[in-house]
Amino acid sequence: MMTKHRGAIVLVDDEIAELGKDLITADTLSRQPLPDHLPEDEELQEEVEHFVRSIVLHQSKTDDRLAKIALNQKLEPTLQNVAFYSKNGWLVKCQLSPLERSFYDVRDEIGEDNGLLMRGLRVIIPSNMRKDVLNRIHAGHQGITKCRARAKDHVWWPGIGQEIQDMVKTCEKCIENQPPKHEPLIPNDFPERSWQKVGKDLFHYEGSEYLVVVDYFSRFIEVVRLTKLSSEAVVDHCKAIFARHGIPDIVISDNGPQFRPSTTSDFTKFASEVGFRHITSSPKHPQ
C-alpha cells in the first residue's frame, strides 16, 4: 500500500518491512556487492598470464638446479656417509674421517627432504658446486655481512662463512670500492696566545668562493670573498689579514691546490718569506 504525501510516494510500514527481507547486507564500499562475474579485462588478463608463466619458468629452473645438487650429493662419498649417519645414527666423533667430523657438531640439524641433504631449511652444497654458489652469492659485490645473510637463508657447507670472508677480502672490485678506514681524531694543542695558530679553508656559498681564516685561541673568524680561486689571490688576502692581527706561528690547511706545498707554490713561498710553519692534513684523512 502506498500513500501520497506532499507530492511524494511513500511506502507504508508493512510494505517497507516486507521489502527489507530482500535487501543484501551492506559491505564496506557499497549497499550491494558487485556481481559474481565481472567483465574480463583483456589487458589485465594478459599481465596475469605473463606473471604466471614467469613463475613457472623460474620454478622449472629452480627444480633443475635442485635436481643437479641432489645428484652431486649422491656422487660425493662424504655426503653419502653423512646421509647414512643422519638416518641410522652417528658414530663416535673420533671414528669419523676429518671431512665427516666437520658435520658432527650440527648432526641434529641434518636430514633429507625429497632426496636433498639439508641442514634445517638450508641445502648442503656438494664440494664441486661450492665455487659457483659463492659467485652467485657475491654477484652484487655486497659486503661480508650481507653475503653471509644471503647464504644463511638458503645454502650451507662446513666453513662457508670463512670462505665468504676470504672471497670478499680478495675481490679486486670490492677492494677498489672499499671506503677508507676512519682514523682516530688527533686533538690539537691549545695555543698560548691569539693568532699563534690559525686554520684556513675555502668554501662555496650562493655562487661565490670564500676564504675563511680561524684563530685557534679566540675562535675569531675572518671571511673574505674571492674573485679568483688561485694561490696568488689567497696569498694577497692572507697578507691583509696577518697585517691586521699579526703573523701566526702555525697555519693549518687542507691539501687543496691553493695550499698544496711545493717549491713553486705561491703559498709555500709566502710561508717561507713571512716565517710561519704550514701544516696540511693528509688526503682523505682530515682527522
Automatic annotation (TrEMBL):
Tell me the InterPro entries matching this sequence. Integrase_cat-core, Integrase_H2C2, Retrovirus_Pol_polyprotein, RNaseH-like_sf, RNaseH_sf
Please state every residue range assigned to the domain named Integrase catalytic: 187-287
What are its E.C. numbers?
2.7.7.49
Organism's domain of life? Answer: Eukaryota
Q: Which SUPFAM superfamilies match?
A: Ribonuclease H-like
**Full protein name:** RNA-directed DNA polymerase
**Species:** Cordylochernes scorpioides
